[in-house]
Amino acid sequence: MQDPGRNSRKADGVITPPDYIGRFAPSPTGPLHLGSLYAALASYLQARSKKGKWLLRIDDLDSFRNVPGASDSILKTLEAYGLHWDHDVVYQSQQIELYNSALEQLHQQQLLFPCICTRKGLIKYHQKNPGPAIYPGFCRNKSLSENQPHALRIKTENSEITFTDQLQGGVIENLQQVHGDFILKRKDQVIAYQLAVVVDDHTQRITEVVRGIDLLDSTTRQIYLQQKLGFKQLHYLHIPVIVDKQGCKLSKQTFAAAVDPKSASSTLHKLLILLKQSPPDELNKAPVAQQLDWAIENWNPNPLKKIRAISQ
């Protein structure tokens, strides 16, 4: 396994991390399609161009959506495209104790409350009450000793969360007015994405998150959790998403085709074009390693600024 972001060692033998640590965190709900490989490549190039580490994390918490064999398929595809990660793969399903510890920390701050509302009930409420579809706070004053099945929500505050995205610019958002109190643990006991990603990024010492712009609106919620848990705020770079001819984001829900490891060279060249890196035509049939060497040396995400979607 390649490791260009290998740890440095001090004279006393203590291993210190590099300045930059990035990651890719796919869900094992199917094989990688062009859109997900596009995000993986962008995060990989950002990390390697900074001589940093690139970690791989499998978001397999939602066992109801996981597809048998998908994790192995993802790993094999990444390797076929030369996207070699540093250190062992982290599986979120093996991190439950860390998430529960974070929940306990938030509970001690009296920030959590049990919510017995149903999705159907909330949909009916919003249909009768036009406006932002935020949680109306029905269960905000309930005790955590609630016996019936419930989700756990975190109380948000009437204050602004701000950050600057490298490509999308400054973002200012009042979490309470835009998202309301959001779920950290579902009624079926599955840890919610927002909490898991924050805990994992902190545990893995991630310094910057590179991902699709469709996750931009999750960022303020994650920064809020970072603040409440005493974690360092990360840097963010949200790239455009790849869309089909109908303008829909490529996804498993829209039956996006899996990328073919056998056509790695041509597909990688296409991805570099979609990332607006202007690779030389002669690289089209070059080996994957040669294309990646060129891409790392010439990586510049700035041509993607303020772009939300790119057609495949």
Which outline best applies?
Answer: elongated
**In DSSP terms, counting alpha (H) and pi (I) runs of 4 or more, how many helices?**
9
Biggest β-sheet description: 3 strands, parallel
Let me know the number of strands: 14
Distance from first to last alpha carbon:
31 Å
Total individual domains: 2
Given helix and strand content, the structural type is alpha/beta
CATH architecture level-2 label of the largest domain: 3-Layer(aba) Sandwich
Q: Describe it for me?
A:
This protein has 312 residues and is α/β, with parallel strands linked by helices. It has two domains: 8-94 and 195-311, HUPs (Rossmann fold); 97-163 and 170-192, Rossmann fold, CATH 3.40.50. It has nine helices and 14 strands. The protein has helices spanning 34-49, 70-80, 96-108, 119-128, 175-178, 193-203, 219-229, 264-274, 288-298, and strands at 8-9, 15-16, 21-24, 53-58, 90-91, 112-115, 151-154, 160-165, 169-174, 182-185, 208-212, 235-239, 241-243, 309-311. It has a three-stranded parallel sheet with strand order 3-4-5, covered by helices on one side. Strands 6-7-10 form a three-stranded antiparallel sheet. A two-stranded antiparallel ribbon has the order 1-2. Strand 11 (208-212), helix 7 (219-229) and strand 12 (235-239) form a beta-alpha-beta unit. The two termini are 31 Å apart.
